[in-house]
Amino acid sequence: MAKNEPRQHTILITGATDGIGLLLARAYAERGHRILATGRRMIADDMAYFGLPNITYIRADQSDPKQAAQRIATAMYNLGWKQLDLAVLNGATGWTGDPAAETPDEIRKQIDINLTAPILLSQALGPWLFVNGGKLALIGSTAIVKGQGAFATYAATKAGLDGFARSLRSEWQDRAEVMIIHPGPTRTGMHKKVGLNLGAAKAFFMSPKRAAKAIQRAIRKGDGKRFVTRGYGWGSIFASAKEGQL
Amino acid sequence: MRALITGAAHGLGRALTEELLEQGHEVLAVDRDTEPLDDLAVKSRGACSVQLVDLANPNSLERMLVGLWEQKFDLVILNAGISASGKFEDIPSAAYAKLIAVNLQAPLVLASGLVRRGAMNNKSKIVFISSLSHAVGYPGASVYAATKDAIATYAKSVRKPFRKHGVGVLTVFPGPIQTDHADRYAPPGAKASRRMEPEVLAKLILKASTGKTSELYPGLTAYFGKLYGRFAPQMATKSMRKAIYEKLEDPVY
To answer: Which of A203, A188, A202 is nearest to A15 (CA)?
Structure first.
């Protein structure tokens, strides 16, 4: 497996238009890496949106998993990348409410975006990752631990990623490093997007900045499975990487 | 009692259907291949009705759901499942899409739809079939493992909300079963005699479905598998790698 030597790495980050994905893209770009950022939005001017020249954005809507995987692979080819050092599959969506009220379309959409897309994407990325023992980091959620009555399908898709990562880590053990990182509740725009008003509970949530920092630490360390709780977030305050490191 | 069984034509589904009919209950048996069910329908003199549904096809699934709103069930066993075994990168993406549709999407759509439309009687039960892979991992069938972990967590999540609708939830984590399905996906040389007989498993599931159990690891293999996975999760996955992944030949999907 490749050492974490300082150099320019090639990094793919999905769901990079908001929240943790956006912070990760900027943090890695600031350390001199080349980033391919993806999301569902149309962005006319990458430079104006991300503020850094080494981030390239392409639109890849994960609600069509096969097409999204193809678009991302094509974009890497067009960038002239010969290998991929790190992929953070972070893009996800949610729905909240009584699980009995969840319509077939809502269920299908979450499964496509949160589970099928990362799986098909992992398959497309394999050959790129194998070149130099790259890292594949799947982003889950601590919701999988006890289940979540108000986010039943969301929790299920994240548990699916957990099981997928566990088995794939073993399958790919000599070729690439597969990880699953489960962030705890974080103050990102996701809750608002799915129509959930957090109120006072927000005070107990991690800031997206700290979550992003903790996730970078977990990726550097390369744990197979890591719960990014508030405690781990606090523990990551001084875990800064140098120029050229992941 | 009136029951709905998906994947009722073969293996565990068939054993469940036969056992329920034996006990004098009514069964709506659903499968994409209904021919093997015809003899049961005739023999049961109407207690067993059969419906052709392809759970991989969302339109077929939705048509079935609309037909179910008028009915009432006391027991629903979401048993239908397929697999895809082989190295992760050797299986075409279309097979993964189908696997996820049948093993994950269909049970979620069915469970929430039946509860939402009031097709479940008060004090009824929905049974989800996960897998022992939830405890030990499954290198060589990583997407199958993903769907079964997802089912287990979905079941855990809906337990409380469904209880408010009068519906209980049971999750089953079976180890290897002696079925044609298992023979198809198992690596060459695997011993069928060490797997559980579907008739035995069917009895255990039906017994648990009448009680308060929320999770069932049936039989000794599943029980020890669960312990192994809990106390030495990494070692358990390593053992599975040795038993399955390293013996794989051509992918089966």
So the answer is: A188
